[in-house]
Amino acid sequence: MLGLEGILNKIFGSDLNPLYYLGALGFYFFWVIAVSGAYIYAFYKTGIELSYPSVEYITHEQWYLGGIMRSLHRYASDALVLVMVLHLLREYILGRYHGARWFAWVTGVLLIWLIFAAGINGYWMVWDKLAQYATVTTVEWFDWLPIFSEPMSRSFLTQDVLNDRFFSLISFAHVTVPLFILFLLWVHIMRISKPVVNPRRRLAAGMLLALFVLSLFVPALSQGPADMLIEPRNLNIDWFYLFIYPLLDIWTAGQVWAMVAGVSLLLTVMPWLPSRFRQIPVAEVHLQDCSGCRLCVADCPYEAVVMRPRSDGMHFTEEAVVVADRCVSCGICVGACPSSNPFRGEESYLSGIEMPSMTMSGLRNRLNADLARLVGDVKILLVGCDNAADVARLRSASVAVLRLPCTAMLPPSFIEYALHEHHVDGVMISGCRENDCYHRLGVLWTEQRLTAKREPRLRSRAERRRIRKFWAASPDFKKLESELESFCASLKQGEVVEK
Ligand code: HEM
Ligand code: SF4
Ligand code: SF4
Question: Which of 13, 43, 126, 181 is the most core-located residue (most Cβ within 10 A)?
């Protein structure tokens, strides 16, 4: 996955890499579907004799607008399935589905069901041969379930029995199911702070242009009017939505139900199955060191820190509280807390918010020990994270290494501490690739803290030429290594010039 993303980064640049915006593209295609659907709906006529001719009118008489809108509606719906499946695969492959992320994952599984329901329902609305095939097959499939006293398929045997009420029902469903989807999309990202729901403008424009060109050259067409007396044959299937139907031709309804239920169940329980991704214990607040400044609330990517009125009688108005089942243990809040400052005198100090398995004083002790052993002309502190290129492999006689759950766990004061208390020559900061932080906002917050655009800021006394950033995923390890060499060389050259 990271290799593929690297290739796309080379082609599009990380700002326009579609794989970094799959969720946002999902939202975008949803809006394209909503706008094009609203247009078609204005001309669509509900009724057994009316639906097909009205869709034909939109497609042929009004091809320049109605026809394009119909095609945009269809291709944006296909694109929605494509980005949804890629998004699911990406979150799974990169391990962003377990722990507190179960909420986004499980609501995502519900979204799959609703999106397929809306798409298949859309195909029925046309009432052409494909709609006839999809409707009858669905009804036969549902008849397998022991929920209806009389088989539903009886209502579809002849054109006479099929009534306009059925069309009113499906056109009502085609508006209400997408409203549910919208509601569920909102729930899906509810526990995410600053979710990216809009792709970059150029990416959105490129996608719309692609859909438009496709609509112009390969317009969406109906496949002849439905006739309940003739079984439809030689149909063109939309494989994005209707792949289940050919399966129903070769398997029994029970087997297809077993497959659908099995896949849904497996996907739903995925966050709780054993995996290679381990999570350290969640963040903890230490009230005696919390001033209620809210910096941790502002930086937590998962809305896992909230404020409540002070409970310990101290003169501050609020205190921070961690909502444990939302916390992914990234440590970004620790990097935001002003009391994480390593210049504090206490031997064993506490930050207002701490990762219990990696306390700030423990980190300072480790850092002190690692920096104290450094020898050589140019001494470096290299900081990185658990989810990107492995910085630990670059530890050497002249390079000390700090590997954190997320680079943004490092308070900027640690950089000053290494430069001024330990006289290292340079600090190199690494972590996930830009726009692809495993913990969503770590790279962005680190950039903003280092450029003094965000609290806690790196103070101006930290010489910028002694600090270098290089964002690198695991396939970029060699690049990180050579960047470190070039940083050392430039520092060495700088010392010579200064002398
Ligand atoms: C078309 C439907 C979907 C849309 C539009 C959508 C959209 C989004 C968006 C915008 C985000 C926030 C991204 C960010 O800012 O970091 C997100 C996160 C997420 N989505 Fe979806 N999603 C969809 C379906 C799914 C499905 C089917 C799954 C998996 C079953 C899924 C799993 C997740 C997970 C696990 C996250 C959280 C990632 C994290 O915590 O880092 N989504 N989704
Ligand atoms: S470790 Fe801190 S920043 Fe990360 S999710 Fe938990 S509370 Fe939020
Ligand atoms: S950043 Fe630290 S001091 Fe500020 S509210 Fe959070 S825990 Fe308290």
Answer: 126
